[in-house]
């Protein structure tokens, strides 16, 4: 009995050791190892200020309720994607190797005046600058430092994601508008003036005539303005509309949302596959190609419905077909599924449906 108790206590102690040291302790050591491997410790969604100094320029970004804004070198809307990409890359960056270095030797690794620097801030809670330098001679890594005394190796794609031009960073769509809330569209083009009104899930044409519109063609206008991107920003301020043929636009789109908010954008005529555009809310002038304007350059026939008539075929229970001097009468039988002739003979359902 005594030996059994001793063996039980030994087993209990061994089990406690395995649980607290090997299992729980192993989990803690894993967390500590992962934390030590990380280059930075921050919540990427909490950062509200980013400053980047790179070969392609110096840029300052600030996060607002409407998304990221560029503050330098110009004040304009930013493309959220590239900025959140940099934050995501840095928040997950792991150091592959580290070594100490004297400050005067930083230039040897491209971490001196030529380094690409990224400064991240979150109010007064977080403020960290990362320097990224030369690519390593072996492997796809670059040298980096956050304190000028310890150099680490991180994947080179992290530096590449921060080395972008002004056009890469900026918002590249022709205008901001809530596509799903648009209820009216007025389009003026070389082919005429067209006015569309949303009726439930369908579009109606009210100008130049009253008829049902081709939903796919009207949706294509909104989709192009929502998804299409401009080729280039050619002027930060619209000081010379004549130069860009915008004093008398060839294309004009005006939209009205359910909240009665108005949105508008103009495009010039096309020359050498180039058209210039300007939206009503921003001062910039941008460039698009003729393909961008294709949904806006349709004929009346293209925008109107091609349906001969409109009906719900599932609700049809009888047919009268006339051909020359002949009349054919069909109706559904009592099952409501099968079609029969007036004399009761069954018809071929697949031909009728």
From TrEMBL:
Pfam families named in the record: DUF4340
Domain of life, per lineage: Bacteria
Residue ranges constituting the DUF4340 domain according to the UniProt record: 68-203
Name of protein: DUF4340 domain-containing protein
């Amino acid at each position: 009995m005594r030996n059994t108790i001793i063996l039980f206590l030994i087993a209990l102690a061994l089990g406690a050791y395995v649980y607290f040291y090997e299992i729980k302790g192993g989990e803690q050591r894993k967390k500590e190892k992962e934390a030590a491997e990380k280059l930075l410790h921050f919540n990427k969604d909490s950062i509200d200020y980013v400053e980047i100094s790179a070969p392609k320029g110096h840029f300052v970004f600030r996060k607002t309720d409407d998304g990221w804004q560029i503050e330098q070198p110009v004040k304009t809307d930013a493309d959220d994607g590239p900025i959140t990409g940099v934050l995501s890359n840095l928040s997950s960056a792991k150091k592959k190797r580290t070594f100490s270095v004297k400050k005067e030797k930083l230039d040897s690794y491209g971490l001196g005046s030529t380094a690409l620097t990224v400064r991240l801030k979150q109010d007064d809670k977080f403020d960290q600058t990362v320097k990224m330098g030369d690519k390593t001679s072996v492997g796809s890594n670059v040298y980096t430092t956050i304190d000028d005394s310890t150099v680490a190796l991180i994947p080179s794609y992290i530096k590449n994601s921060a080395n972008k031009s002004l056009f890469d960073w900026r918002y590249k769509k022709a205008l901001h508008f809530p596509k799903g809330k648009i209820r009216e569209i007025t389009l003026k083009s070389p082919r005429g003036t067209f006015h569309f009104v949303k009726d439930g899930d369908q579009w109606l044409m009210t100008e130049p005539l009253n008829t049902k519109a081709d939903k796919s063609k009207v949706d294509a206008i909104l989709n192009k303005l929502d998804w299409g991107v401009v080729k280039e920003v050619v002027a930060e301020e619209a000081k010379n509309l004549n130069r860009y043929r915008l004093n008398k636009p060839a294309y004009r789109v005006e939209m009205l949302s359910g909240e009665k908010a108005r949105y508008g954008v103009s495009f010039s005529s096309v020359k050498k596959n180039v058209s210039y555009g300007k939206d009503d809310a921003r001062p910039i002038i941008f460039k698009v190609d003729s393909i961008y304007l294709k949904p806006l350059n349709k004929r009346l026939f293209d925008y109107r419905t091609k349906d001969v008539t409109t009906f719900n075929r599932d609700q049809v229970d009888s047919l009268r077909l006339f051909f020359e001097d002949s009349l054919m009468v069909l109706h559904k039988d009592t099952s409501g599924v099968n079609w029969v002739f007036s004399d009761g003979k069954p018809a071929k359902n697949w031909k009728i449906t």
